[in-house]
Backbone:
């Protein structure tokens, strides 16, 4: 740590003060399963010492370098990396939950997280309640004497509802509950749940942190005391990230500040254009003043991700597919956080007597020029017979 340096500088230099072998600019990928000592005596003498590694399922220098940068980004004492975001989420939940515990989770959290809590953990006697999470009172309403943990995701990544992180974390602390928050959408550049009182911050590093759609990874950040317990679970489950993944993450993190500034601008520009279009009934982006929790977003975030969703006016399915068939610059898939714009969507409910229903679309705005993306959306909308405004 250089103490006074900006995070953009830390992402380049933190943990890289000493030259790498051969004066290499990029860190070595320490692609080894095992670390050995020259003598058994030396091995015994160095056991437990900092900077001594034994086996890459437990720890690895390339992985640790990336972990130091994630901890600096989140402003926490420590961070750990995992083979995926779900590995980070599952390993963290399994560390702190036991039979008889109850969890409160936001109902629009990432669907596999909901399945883990609502369908999989009940096999081990852990129960979960799901609530919108938009008011602290909703947590109090479902609280039980055995509520151990609150699972937050702010904003949620399909419907973009927020939780008041400071208020929820302080309520949880007063009741002796642990708080976890998925911060993948805002990234640590735009939101630091730990600074607002949340105990553990989770990331799918497969999204913005990796940033190039070539990495599946996850992270958890928090106090050393909690992180040490999660490290033990990671060792037992074998859920650590491999060194090459950590190296890709270090490379992605170097450009995170420049990417996020541009992605935020691009996302807002495209969302503002779409919000004006007659075929759009509702647009969910916490950065737009029309979002019901915009004031909270401004208070607890410093910026916005470029993933948002919308509901259309009633359309025929053929119109919806004609619109998406004509998009030239969007690809169709559910992940996000890379350089490329993406869209997923589906019709909601049964069609009315004229064969129309509302469609839900989630758009990820990438690093293309936003004017090109708007032109693309406009021409596809014309092909589908929608009126558009400039
Ligand atoms: C908000 C959110 N959290 C967690 C995850 C899980 O991350 P991973 O796919 O890296 O396991 C995802 C993945 O799509 C996500 O969108």
Residues:
């Amino acid at each position: 740590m250089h103490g006074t340096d900006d995070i953009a500088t830390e992402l380049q230099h933190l943990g890289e003060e000493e030259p790498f072998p051969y004066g290499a600019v990029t860190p070595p990928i320490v692609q080894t399963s095992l670390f050995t000592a020259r003598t058994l005596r030396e091995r015994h003498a160095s056991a437990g010492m900092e900077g001594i590694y034994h086996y890459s399922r437990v720890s690895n220098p390339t992985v640790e370098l990336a972990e130091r940068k994630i901890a600096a980004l989140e402003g926490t004492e420590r961070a750990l990396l995992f083979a995926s975001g779900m590995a980070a989420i599952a390993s963290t939940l399994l560390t702190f939950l036991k039979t008889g515990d109850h969890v409160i989770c936001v109902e629009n959290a990432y669907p596999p997280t909901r399945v883990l809590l609502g369908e999989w953990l009940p096999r081990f006697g852990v129960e979960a309640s799901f609530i919108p999470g938009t008011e602290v009172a909703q947590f109090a309403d479902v609280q039980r004497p055995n509520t151990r943990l609150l699972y937050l995701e702010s904003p949620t990544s399909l419907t973009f509802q927020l939780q008041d992180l400071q208020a929820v974390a302080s309520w949880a602390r007063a009741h002796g509950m642990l708080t976890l928050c998925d911060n993948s959408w805002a990234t640590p550049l735009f939101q630091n749940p730990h600074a607002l009182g949340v105990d553990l911050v989770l990331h799918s590093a497969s999204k913005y942190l990796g940033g190039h759609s070539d990495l599946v990874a996850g992270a958890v950040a928090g106090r050393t005391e909690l992180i040490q317990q999660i490290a033990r679970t990671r060792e037992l489950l074998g859920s650590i990230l491999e060194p090459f993944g950590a190296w890709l993450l270090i490379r992605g993190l170097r450009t995170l500040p420049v990417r996020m500034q541009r992605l935020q601008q691009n996302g807002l520009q495209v969302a503002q254009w779409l919000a004006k279009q007659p075929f759009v009934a509702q647009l969910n982006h916490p950065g737009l003043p029309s979002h019901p929790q915009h004031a909270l977003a401004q208070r607890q975030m410093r910026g916005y991700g470029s993933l948002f969703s919308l509901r259309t006016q009633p359309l025929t399915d053929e119109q919806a597919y004609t619109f998406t068939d004509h998009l030239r610059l969007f690809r169709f898939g559910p992940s996000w956080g890379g350089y490329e714009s993406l869209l997923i969507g589906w019709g909601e409910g049964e069609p009315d007597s004229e064969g129309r229903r509302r469609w839900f679309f989630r758009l990820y705005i990438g690093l293309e020029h936003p004017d090109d993306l708007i032109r693309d959306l406009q021409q596809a909308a014309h092909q589908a017979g929608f009126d558009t405004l400039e």
